[in-house]
């Protein structure tokens, strides 16, 4: 029998940013949001009790690691990062850049090592790749996009301000002017005071950017040379995060509680919908499988194109912001060298367990031959048609077999598995 380890569901590592991790701060900001109208265009007085008691320093914030293929493992690693929002990882520099309200944190080996500053940094929402030396910063508080080199972050090599390109009025019709000589890192800018609340951008053609405008409900194209905007799609409800996918794009239509799968020509090909409440972000894991941030339900969901949820993870009272897929080889530079040992404890087969299992190979082991045993009480079986499946899948004959495991394997399968078998029978 081939004893080589087989990964039926190899890990798919994703970073998740949470901009609020303090439950009491979350309660206060939700009370503040409740005072606004649904489109977040109503300005709340600075004397409001919810505004007066709300301080960004109390929000908390984290960058966390999850495995999208095994959400039941929960949060695998975490790093404190205040008001963590958009993320960008540079493999060349081995640094993780994370938006943090009015600055960008540089994370290496489990800690914030430095911060980047620019006078136009305010309410940062997204960071995304520009070229080998630069990345884009979506600075929502000034309704702008900046292209920066992290070695010289205080001077953007290119920028785009909505107020200079025809979007110069807030939702209530008040004119807005961004003073380029002013340091907006010391200015409070709320969503209703912004003209677009631009919150994501994506390079998609040579010298072209896509961007989502929250207030206008639009997806626009920006010409990098002329800076002229062009509306591609509109009539969305508070959209967030335009993403690439195979064959097109993904757009989170947040207040409509859905995700749009767009073609390369920006035609709506399909809609992901379900029991969602404010879809903050969505990425493609593989063909027709997606990871979705169901923000107001405090969970992440893996779903397919047929809107059939495959798995969910509820993370409690915190506020999710965005996703960033990463490789396992990236993790040591982000979380520190200990992360690989921690992951080995989860994903590598326990030697004594594997040895014990191999003492009793069976020709008909749950419809196949035993291929591997994992420390999370999993058996991997190679079926006769060449596929692999895990023993915890609640198929009838698998349950029947697990209930009659050989004695030498029983110590490695804890009561939690036995209880799940019982619940299946009842």
Radius of gyration: 24 Å
Write down the oligomeric state. Answer: single chain
Given as residue ranges, the uncertain stretches (5+ residues, pLDDT < 50) are: 1-8, 45-52, 371-377, 388-426
Biggest sheet descriptor: 4 strands, antiparallel
Helix fraction, binned, reads: 10-25%
* Average pLDDT: 83
Structural class: mainly beta
Strand residues, percent: 35-45%
Q: Trace the largest sheet across and list its strands.
A: 3-2-1-24
Tell me the total number of β-strands.
27
Distance between the ends: 36 Å
Number of helices: 7
Q: Give the overall form.
A: globular
Report on this model:
This protein has 426 residues and is mostly beta strands. Helix content is 14%, strand content 38%. It is built from seven helices and 27 strands. The protein has helices at residues 23-35, 49-52, 331-335, 338-347, 351-358, 396-402, 415-425, and strands at 13-20, 62-67, 77-80, 84-90, 95-100, 103-108, 111-116, 124-129, 135-139, 144-148, 158-161, 198-205, 208-213, 218-223, 229-233, 239-245, 248-253, 258-263, 268-273, 279-286, 289-294, 299-304, 309-314, 319-325, 368-374, 378-383, 388-390. It has a four-stranded antiparallel sheet with strand order 3-2-1-24. A four-stranded antiparallel sheet has the order 4-5-6-7. Strands 8-9-10-11 form a four-stranded antiparallel sheet, with no helix packed on it. It is globular, with a radius of gyration of 24 Å. The model is unreliable at 1-8, 45-52, 371-377 and 388-426 (pLDDT under 50).
């Amino acid at each position: 029998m081939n004893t080589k380890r087989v990964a039926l569901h190899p890990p798919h590592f994703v970073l998740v940013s949470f901009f609020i991790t303090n439950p009491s701060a979350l309660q206060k900001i939700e009370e503040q949001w409740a005072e606004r109208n649904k489109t977040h265009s109503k300005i709340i007085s600075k004397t409001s009790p919810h505004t007066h008691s709300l301080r960004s320093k109390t929000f908390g914030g984290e960058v966390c690691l999850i495995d999208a293929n095994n959400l039941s493992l929960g949060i695998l690693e975490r790093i404190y990062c205040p008001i963590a929002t958009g993320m960008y990882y540079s493999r060349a520099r081995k640094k993780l850049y994370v938006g943090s309200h009015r600055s960008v944190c540089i994370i290496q080996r489990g800690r914030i090592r430095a911060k980047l500053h620019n006078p136009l940094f305010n309410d940062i929402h997204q960071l995304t790749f520009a070229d080998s030396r630069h990345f884009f910063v979506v600075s929502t508080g000034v309704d702008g996009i900046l292209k920066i080199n992290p070695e010289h972050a205080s001077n953007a090599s290119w920028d785009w301000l909505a107020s200079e390109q025809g979007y110069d009025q807030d939702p209530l019709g008040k004119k807005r002017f961004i003073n380029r000589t002013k340091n907006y890192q010391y200015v409070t800018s709320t969503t209703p005071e912004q003209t677009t609340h631009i919150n994501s951008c994506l390079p998609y053609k040579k010298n072209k950017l896509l961007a989502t405008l929250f207030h206008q409900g639009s997806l626009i194209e920006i010409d990098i040379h002329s800076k002229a905007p062009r509306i591609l799609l509109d009539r969305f409800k508070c959209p967030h995060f335009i993403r690439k996918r195979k064959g097109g794009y993904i757009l989170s239509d947040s207040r409509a509680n859905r995700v749009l799968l767009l073609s390369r020509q920006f035609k709506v090909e399909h809609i992901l919908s379900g029991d969602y409440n404010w879809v903050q972000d969505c990425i493609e894991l593989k063909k027709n499988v997606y990871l979705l941030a169901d923000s107001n339900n405090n969970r992440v969901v893996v779903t397919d194109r047929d809107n059939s949820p495959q798995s969910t993870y509820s993370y409690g009272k915190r506020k999710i912001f965005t996703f960033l897929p990463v490789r396992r080889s990236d993790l040591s530079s982000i979380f520190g060298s200990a992360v690989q040992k921690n992951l080995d404890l989860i994903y590598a087969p326990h030697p004594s367990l594997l040895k014990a299992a191999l003492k009793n190979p069976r020709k008909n082991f749950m419809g196949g031959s035993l291929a591997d045993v994992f420390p999370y009480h999993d058996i991997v079986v190679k079926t006769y048609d060449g596929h692999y499946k895990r023993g915890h899948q609640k198929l009838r004959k698998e349950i029947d077999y697990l209930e009659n495991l050989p004695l030498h394997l029983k110590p490695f399968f804890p009561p939690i598995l036995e209880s799940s078998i019982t619940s299946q029978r009842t």
